[in-house]
């Protein structure tokens, strides 16, 4: 991003938004660090009397602006996103009270190495070369697929006077309940994404790939950590499983024969290429394959 143009964009955006929001609303522009240490500019609209509001990332709107989108349209879009977030019922006092907050604590999975700096500041559980981290999910309107969240920090555990193990137990129970898994054949996903019907006549069969996520497709790769999920999937397909880390939001399941790891190098190379070209930097989970052995009930990183 060209810094001069970005400053110009932010100045104009704040001017327009200041005319749209209620008097006393604070407009904050800040840099937000997300998964894989990817940072981007964000905006928070904090009305008077509200003690917490989610951030809205600005990079996409900035590129729209460079391509000629009217600044008034952009401001209107940001305002329309922010307004329902402000009505989410979030209260910082409730968040800081563990008994009130705990029912909305969930977990997600990220890469360990690429988040090592950030992981020093947040509670986490090591899982192979991944890390299970925790977030507070803001309540959304019924039927909404929008997920607003707050990353749980080490300082929050100190305020709550709880340990990571307690946090993990609560998060697992909540995540399984609030973010139920969803497994679909790749053909079904293509049909939905491309708005075409031709794949509907192609049946799933052993050897096909399946998309595993949660119903909101929000950090759905965490579903590989749900109790019994991989075991039940392997039993259903009557096969061991390759787990291909498509992104932090989903993984692909590929049923394989017992001990068949002959294509590991090919899959790993393909995963790395796709991550470099087609997956947003902050959504990359891992650059290699995982293998689930149903006889041992164990997820592992296969050797080459």
What report would you give on this structure?
This protein has helices at residues 3-20, 59-66, 71-86, 92-96, 98-101, 116-119, 154-160, 164-178, 186-194, 229-237, 264-277; strands spanning 26-33, 39-46, 56-57, 105-111, 124-127, 130-137, 149-151, 181-185, 210-214, 240-247, 250-256, 290-293, 298-300. Helix content is 36%, strand content 24%. The model is unreliable at 194-206 (pLDDT under 50). The chain starts with a helix and ends with a strand. It is built from eleven helices and 13 strands. It is globular and about 65 Å long. It has a six-stranded antiparallel beta sheet, with helices on both faces. Strands 4, 5, 6 and 7 form a four-stranded antiparallel beta sheet that branches.
- The end-to-end span amounts to 40 Å
Number of strands: 13
Read across the widest sheet, the strand sequence of neighbours is 8-9-11-10-12-13
Beta content: 15-25%
Mean pLDDT: 85
Helix and strand string, N-terminal first? HEEEHHHHEHEEEHHEHEHEEHEE
> Shape, please?
globular
Low-confidence runs: 194-206
How many DSSP H or I helices?
Answer: 11
C-alpha Rg, in Å?
21 Å
């Amino acid at each position: 991003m060209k810094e001069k143009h970005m400053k110009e964009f932010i100045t104009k955006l704040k001017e327009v938004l200041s005319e749209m929001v209620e008097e006393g609303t604070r407009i904050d522009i800040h840099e937000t660090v997300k998964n894989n240490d990817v940072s981007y500019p964000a905006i928070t609209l904090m009305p008077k009397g509200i003690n917490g509001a989610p951030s809205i990332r600005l990079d996409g709107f900035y590129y729209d602006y460079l391509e000629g989108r009217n600044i008034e349209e952009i401001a209107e879009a940001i305002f329309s996103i922010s307004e329902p977030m402000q009505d989410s019922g979030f209260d910082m006092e409730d968040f800081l009270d563990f008994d009130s907050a705990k029912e909305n604590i969930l977990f997600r999975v990220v890469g360990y190495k690429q988040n090592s700096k950030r992981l020093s500041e947040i509670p986490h559980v090591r899982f192979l070369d991944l890390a299970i981290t925790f977030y507070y999910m803001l309540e959304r309107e019924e039927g909404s697929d929008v997920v607003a969240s707050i990353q749980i920090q080490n300082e929050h555990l100190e305020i709550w006077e709880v340990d990571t193990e307690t946090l993990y137990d609560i998060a697992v129970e909540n995540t399984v309940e609030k973010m139920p898994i969803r497994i679909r054949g790749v053909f079904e996903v293509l049909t939905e994404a491309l708005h075409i019907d031709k794949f509907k006549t192609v049946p799933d069969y052993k050897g096909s790939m399946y998309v595993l996520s949660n119903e909101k497709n929000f950090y759905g790769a965490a579903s590989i950590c749900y109790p019994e999920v991989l075991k039940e999937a392997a039993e259903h397909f009557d096969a061991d499983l390759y787990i291909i880390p498509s992104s932090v939001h989903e993984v692909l399941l590929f049923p394989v024969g017992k001990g068949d790891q002959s294509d590991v190098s090919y899959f790993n190379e393909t995963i790395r290429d796709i991550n470099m070209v087609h997956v947003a930097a902050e959504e990359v989970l891992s650059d290699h394959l995982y293998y689930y052995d149903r006889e041992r009930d164990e997820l592992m990183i296969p050797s080459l």
